[in-house]
Every structure is written in C-alpha cells, then in structure tokens.
Design goal:
The structure holds two protein chains of two kinds. In chain A, about 50% of the residues lie in helices and about 15% in strands. Chain A contains twelve helices and eleven strands. The chains are: A alpha+beta, B alpha+beta.
Chain lengths: ~425, ~450
C-alpha cells in the first residue's frame, strides 16, 4: 500500500486537506444531530392513540336557534342526532362526548384513593355515554361500559346537583357527597392502585366526592399540556348546552370517514337546521396537531440533504484541483509503470484518509453539539448507532465524490509526463 | 484600482465557469439556509412591540392550591392567569396609566343572510385601554372610551378580515353587527395586524392570529360569557353556575398594565398589599409570589420560541460555517494554482498588498454574488414556509422578512467572504516569485 507516501503528501498540504477534514467533521456533527431530531419528531408522530383514528369523524353542533336555550329541546335534538348518526349506513357507532382525540388538550382534574391522605393525581376527565368506547374503538380490559339508562340517570343527577348551591360543611367542602361511576384507563388505574385491579374501588376528588371504578379501558393516549397523556377518567353524562353545543364522535366502516362526512352533515341539517355543524376527521385534527412537527421535519430533512450536497461538492472541487495540479506527476507515475487502477486507488485512498481524519474529529464535534443543543433546545441524546450511521454515510459520500475526479486522473496519459506544461 | 481588481476578479470567475458556479452556489446555499432559519427564529424571538415593551407588564398572582404548586415544568411559577374577582379589585388602582384584563370567548356571529349562515367566531373581551396600550393599528375609526367600558355600550372593533366578510372591505364605522342576541355598533376597523407571537395572550397557542372581533369586557355579565381559553381551577366554586365562576378561585383572565417610568415599584407594592389583605381573609394560601413582568421577560419565561426553531437556527449557522470552509478550500486551491501568474505580477512590481487586495476583492465578489442569490433563495424559502404553515396550520404570514434580517444576510455574506478569503489571499501574496518564474 502507498499509505505512507499519501500521508506524507497530505502533510505538505496541511491547510487544504485540513479544511476538507474540518468540513466533513462539521457535516457529521450537523447530520447526526439533525437526523436525531427528525427521528424524535417522527416517533411522536407515529405514536398510537389507541383509537380507530382514521375511521372517526368529529361532529360539533353549535346551535344559534334560541329554541335550543330550552333544556328539553336540547335533549330531544340530542336524541334525534344520535339516532340519525347511528342510522346512517356505514356508521358503526356514534357518541356524544366532549373528548376529542389529538386536539392537544381537553379537561383534567385530580383524584386519589378515597379515604386516604395520598397525593392527588392529575388525570384527564371527559363525559361518555353508551356508545363512547365503541365509537373510539377501544377495548374494555375489565368491567362494563355505561348503558343508555345509566347515562340518562347520571345526567339527571348531575344536572340537579349543579342547579343549586351545594351546602358547605365546616371544612369548606360540600356537606353532602355524591358517588359517580367511572371508567378509567388502565394506565391511570396502575398509577393510583398499582398492580391490583381497580374494579369496584373508590376514588375521591378535592371535594371528597367519590368515583367508583366500574370499568377499565385499554391503551389511551391523548397528548395534553401536562404529562397526563395516558390517564383518563370517563363519567356518564350527556353533554349539550346552548353555548357549547353538542360534540359527537362518529366511527365509520374502514375507509369511509371522508366519504360519509357529507351524508352525515346533510342528515343532521335535515334533522334540525337551527345550528352550525363543524365536521372534521380525526386524521385532519391529528395532521394539524402535528403540523409544526411536520414542518420541522421537512426543513431539517432539506437542510441535511443540502449539507451533504455542499460537502460533496467541496470534495469534488478539491480533488479536481489535486488532479490538475499533479497532472505531470501522474503522467510520470504512469510512464514509470503505474496502472490506471493504481492512480484511481491513490486518489480514493488519499480522500479516505482525509475523510476518516475528519470523521474522527466529527464524532467529538457531534457529541459537543448535541450537548449544546440539549442544554438549550430539547434535543434528544445522540445515540451511538446514529453516529455509526453518519460515519458510514459520509464515508460513502467521500468515495462517491472522489470517484469522478479520480477517474479523470486515471485517464491521464503517460505522454503528459514528457510534455512541458 | 478597486475597479481594476474588480475586473480581474470577474475575468477570473469567467475563466473556469463550472468551478465558479460551485463556489458561488455553495456560498449562496449557506446564506440562503442561515438567513431563512435566522429569520424564522427572529420572527418568534423579536420584541413584538419595541416602542413599549419595557412599560407594558403582565400581572400574575399565586392564588393556587396550598397543597401543591400550579402544575407545569417549573413549580415556582404562579398560575398563568388571574381570577375575575382579583381582576376587578386590582383594576381599582390608578397607578397604571393604562390597564386591561382580557379573555377570549367563542360567540355566535350573525352575518347578513346574503353573506352566509350564523357562525361561531372568537371574540376578545377588552377594556378601552387595550387598543392604545398595544398600539393596535386602525384603518377606520378607533377604539371606544371609558364610558363605553362602564356602560357597557354595545360597540365593537373588527379586524380587516371580518370587515371584508361583513362589509366587503368598506369603511363600516357606524354600521351594526349582530353577535349572539345583541346588535353592536362598529366603532373601529383594524389595519392588517398579524404579530407572529400573539404576545398579549400566550396562554394557549402563542402563534394563533389575533381575534377578529373586540368587545367591551363588561358584557361578560349581561351576556354570561364563557372563556374560550384556559380556565385553571383547584377548588369548587362556592356558588353554582355563572355567578359561581365569577367569585371562584378559577383563573382565566390575562391582565396587562402600562407602568411607565417609576410606576412599576409602587404598583408591585400595591399588589403585595392587596394579596396581604386577601390572605387575612383566608385567600391566597400560598407564599406571596406576584409577578409583574415586562413583555420580553414574560415571553422568555413562557418560552414562546419553540426549542426546535432555536436548534434549527444554530444548525443553519453551522451550515454556513461548512459552506465557508468549503469556499475557503476551493479558493485556496484556485489561488495557488494561479501561482505562476502571481509570480509574474510580483516580478513586474506588484506589492504583496496589491496581490492581497486583488484576491480579497475576488472573494468578496464571490460572496456578494452568492449572498444576493442566497437572499433571493431565502425569500422564496420563507414564502414556501409561510404557505406550508398556512395550509397545514391555517396561520397566515407567520414569518415576515424584515430589514434587520436583510442586514444580517448581507453582513453574513461579507463576513463569510472575508473569513473564507483572508487565508487564501494571505497565502497567495506570500508566494516567492522566483520559483514560479523559473518554471515558466
């Protein structure tokens, strides 16, 4: 191998090759960190909600007809809507629930095991009815879902409760407590009760009102402002007000969500025209929720591609210079018996040495940049497989970029050596 | 002389077109990427109201649960908003020259039947001081006065977009708009106003565009308005229903005060005294933790610049560094290949300085051409980005290119040319003429 002469030649041109090495080092640092950020964003985006996202449509009915100010009218309209939705061909289930997957928030409360002085544990909380879990497409792990009768009874009870002031006891909390049946996510059950089955157990909130766990659902994931994405408590209640309107979730046969939207809207308008209807598929809501991340991923990907492009241009440029500059030497070597392959190998090897030197430097820079980004921005830790991947990529880029000029060098005829340039 | 150097530089660039293209293209990409990402970060991080940001203060008080701090990353932070009852009390002072509590509400707008069906719109409830406080630009008319605050009188200010929808963009001052079950008289129409960060309310998405309709705050009670923003509570209200919420410990109001000169200290004292009074009455069970912060302090604390944007700005500057290294390497090689010529020039009497200047001029020419192309590309890039944000997030004009960023781009180009060019030019002016003359 001619490694010795190559390294000696490089040392005579320290600056030029040093620059290329430094460029490759920086490129490795940027590429590995950017790709780490891209993968991090993608991991969040492919995280499963646990629901049948692509087949759910969110329907929001907001009344403007003053007739809706009357509670009986609202109740009637709600019943009609649910009947219309459930009767639409292609609809598997429909529910009236304030829960909306992927909207990046919702409502929350704090609870703990009833009768204890334990820490209050925050969870998301939403109303549900007889169709909620079917409409979301989540399985019950144990216990039972709410029935239509229970939803009606609980709705009446909650309405009566909030209609008048609750009498306060000496402790500043309502004197008469109530107990409400709830279905919770498995993750929240685990958080509160540990490994034991939460079924039949009681939770309490800050007013010491009680919540009896009657069921547990499988995976629940809804990103929230606070780290309670997997915790939820559902209680039976019908949700319909004049100000807030009535929210529905409709689950359709696979692939029907987009097609069915128009039909649903027509049917609901036919049922009652005194309100506005906003229809959005959960996929749309999810796309919007991850919008900023999608844009970040695109920009980062663009940057990485451009960067590798610029670096490879640099390698091509400098190798071309080396070739032009050493035309006579190459001619001489050829005249002295070097084959084309020898010349080609010389340049590839030379470039490989420079690239490798740069990459060694680059690994250090990559970790340094990662630490810098982690202290400021929320970048994730750089993993070694990423560094290995980056090194391999840049090795390949180095070889590919050298190839064209090196080929040109190998075609230099031995006759050049005898000519006076 | 400079002109002569300039001509040589142009000739030199023309001599090897492909190489020149690579050199210029490389630096253009560097400038494009760094300018675009810096502009992006700048749009989020810049002072949204430079003329007044140090006198406008956001007010918070810790009225949260005695058992645990307000949830979030930082347990020392008070709730992001204040309660209605506290707003009413602290607005009784005249220490601030202007002040306004504010929140947003989702209300029904009834356009003319020819225009369309009734729809829900986000309305911001404010006091009259809000408009002059935040220097909101008006196209027609103006805000309302204190009398309309107190009434409250049925007046509204609408933005450009709402005015286009309802009145075809005409001067609509004096016309009426129906919101929920009331008629409101338009007193002002806003000019285009789309700050990247909705700095007067960053409690939810800090990048949503400002609301389209502004109404007197005191319609809260007669219209029984609900907030469309966050509403954070830890204790059940003592009364049911609407009135219960007004006297509850639930915080849902953003509070701004304008405190020029030496008014900030007296205001903080006033606020501390108020909380002290309330503590005696059994409220504010947590330690005293009032925050009265100027705009930029508050925005930094709320971290309105997404971490990814900062990371991308850092990465883009490193990208420029790579491009500069690239440029330096290529220029070095190019200049050294020209050694024989330089030998001749030196032998004919050119000083080292002349050679140095000649090459620096060539580097700067490359940088300027590359920079110009780069700025053009970054403008196109920002347009594409704005379009993505518009289609994906439904937020128009999130990034605006401003003169500061143009200066930055030009500065970066010249600096890149100088940094990348200085060493090659220095090397080349130290070439000994004799050796190269011999070879000729």
């Amino acid at each position: 191998m001619e490694l010795g002469p190559i390294v000696r030649a490089l040392r005579r041109n320290k600056t030029r090759f040093g620059l290329i090495a430094l460029e490759i080092a920086l490129t490795l640092a940027i590429v590995t960190n950017c790709v780490t950020m891209i993968l991090e964003a993608r991991t969040k985006m492919v995280k499963e909600s646990g629901f049948d996202d692509s087949n759910i449509v969110s329907v929001r009915s907001t009344p403007f007809d003053p007739a809706f100010k009357e509670e009986g009218y609202r109740d009637n309209s709600l019943k009609q809507d649910l009947a219309a939705l459930r009767g639409t061909p292609g609809v598997i289930a429909a529910t009236n629930s304030g829960f909306l997957p992927w909207q990046g928030g919702g409502s929350s409360t704090e609870m703990r095991i009833a009768g204890t002085k334990g820490e209050m544990l925050r969870t998301q909380i939403y109303n549900a009815d007889e169709g909620t879990f079917q409409a979301l497409g989540v399985e019950m792990v144990e216990g039972t879902a709410f029935t239509a009768e229970q939803t009606d009874t609980d709705t009446l009870r909650l309405a009566a409760l909030s209609a008048s002031a609750r009498e306060m006891g000496a402790d500043g909390l309502p004197r008469d407590k109530f107990t409400q049946d709830v279905v919770i996510s498995r993750a929240y059950g685990k958080l509160v009760f540990g490994e034991a089955s939460p079924l039949g157990k009681l939770l309490e909130d800050s007013d010491r009102d009680m919540y009896r766990v009657v069921g547990t659902i499988e995976d629940f994931y809804n990103p929230y402002g606070w780290p309670i994405h997997e915790y939820v408590v559902f209680y039976a209640n019908r949700r319909r007000s004049f100000e807030g309107g009535a929210p529905y979730l409709v689950r359709t046969e696979p692939g029907q969500a987009v097609v069915i939207t128009k039909t649903i809207e027509d049917r609901l308008v036919a049922a009652n025209a005194g309100r506005n209807l906003q229809m959005r598929t959960i996929d749309e809501i999810k796309a919007q929720f991850f919008g900023a991340q999608r844009i970040t991923v695109r920009l980062m990907t663009g940057t990485v591609v451009l960067l590798v492009f610029v670096t490879s241009l640099g390698i091509v440029g400098l190798t071309s210079f080396s070739v032009t500059e050493r035309t006579r030497q190459i001619g001489t070597r050829r005249a002295l018996g070097a084959r084309r392959a020898d010349i080609l190998r010389h340049f590839l090897l030379e470039n490989w040495v420079v690239t490798t030197f740069g990459l060694v430097l680059g690994v250090g820079l990559a970790y340094a940049l990662n630490m810098g980004l982690m202290s400021g921005a929320a970048a994730t830790k750089l993993g070694w497989p990423m560094v290995v991947g980056g090194v391999t990529l840049l090795w390949c880029v180095g070889i590919l970029a050298t190839l064209a000029p090196a080929m040109r060098a190998s075609r230099i005829s031995p006759a050049i050596a005898t000519r006076n340039v | 002389m400079l002109l002569y150097n300039f001509r040589i530089a142009l000739l030199s660039l023309k001599r090897n077109r492909i190489l020149s293209l690579v050199i210029i293209g490389g630096i253009a990409l560097g400038i494009a990427v760094s300018t675009m990402f810096s502009t992006m970060r700048h749009a989020f991080a810049k002072d949204p109201i430079p003329s007044k940001s140090d006198v406008l203060h956001y007010v918070r008080m810790d009225s949260w649960d005695p058992m645990k701090p307000y949830p979030g990353d930082d347990p020392t932070q008070p709730p992001t908003q204040i309660t209605y009852r506290d707003m009413v009390e602290i607005m009784k002072t005249d220490i601030p020259v202007r002040q306004s509590g504010t929140f947003k509400s989702n209300l029904l707008l009834f356009p003319d039947q020819n225009i369309g069906r009734p729809r829900k719109v986000i309305v911001r409830m404010v006091f009259s001081d809000f408009f002059p406080m935040f220097e909101i630009p008006f196209r027609y008319g103006s805000g309302w006065d204190k009398r309309a605050d107190a009434g409250p009188e049925p007046v509204v200010v609408i933005d450009e977009e709402t005015n286009d929808l309802l009145f075809g963009g005409q001067d609509s001052v004096g016309k009426t708009v129906r919101i929920e079950d009331r008629e409101f008289k338009v007193v002002g129409v806003l000019d285009t106003w789309r700050p990247t960060v909705k700095f007067y309310d960053v409690t939810q998405n800090p990048n949503e565009p400002p609301e389209g309709i502004f109404m007197p705050f005191n319609f809260l009670r007669p219209m029984q308005l609900q907030t469309a923003g966050n509403s954070d509570g830890w204790k059940s209200p003592p009364l049911p229903g609407f009135e219960g919420r007004l006297v509850s410990e639930t915080s849902w109001i953003q509070m701004w005060v304008e405190l020029p000169g030496d008014r900030a200290l007296p205001y903080k004292d006033f606020l501390a005294a108020y909380v002290g009074e309330q503590k005696k009455a059994g409220r504010f069970p947590r330690p005293l933790n009032n925050r009265v912060q100027p705009v930029m302090t508050y925005l930094k604390e709320r971290k309105v610049v997404p971490d990814e944007i900062t990371a991308m700005a850092v990465v883009s500057l490193l990208f420029l560094a790579v491009c500069a290294l690239n440029l330096m390497g290529l220029l070095l090689a190019k200049f050294l290949a020209r050694a024989p010529e330089i030998g001749v020039r030196r032998a004919l009497g050119a000083r080292r300085l002349d050679i140095f200047v000649q090459h620096i001029v060539e580097c700067e020419l490359v940088a300027i051409i590359g920079g110009t192309i780069g700025i053009a590309i970054s403008l196109a890039g920002i347009a594409v980005l704005n379009n993505w944000v518009k289609t994906i997030l439904n937020r128009p004009d999130i990034i605006q290119f401003d003169p500061q960023m143009l200066l930055l781009a030009v500065g970066l180009s010249l600096a890149a040319g100088l940094v990348a060019g200085a060493y090659p030019a220095w090397r080349v002016c130290h070439i000994a003429p004799a050796i190269h003359l011999k070879v000729q």
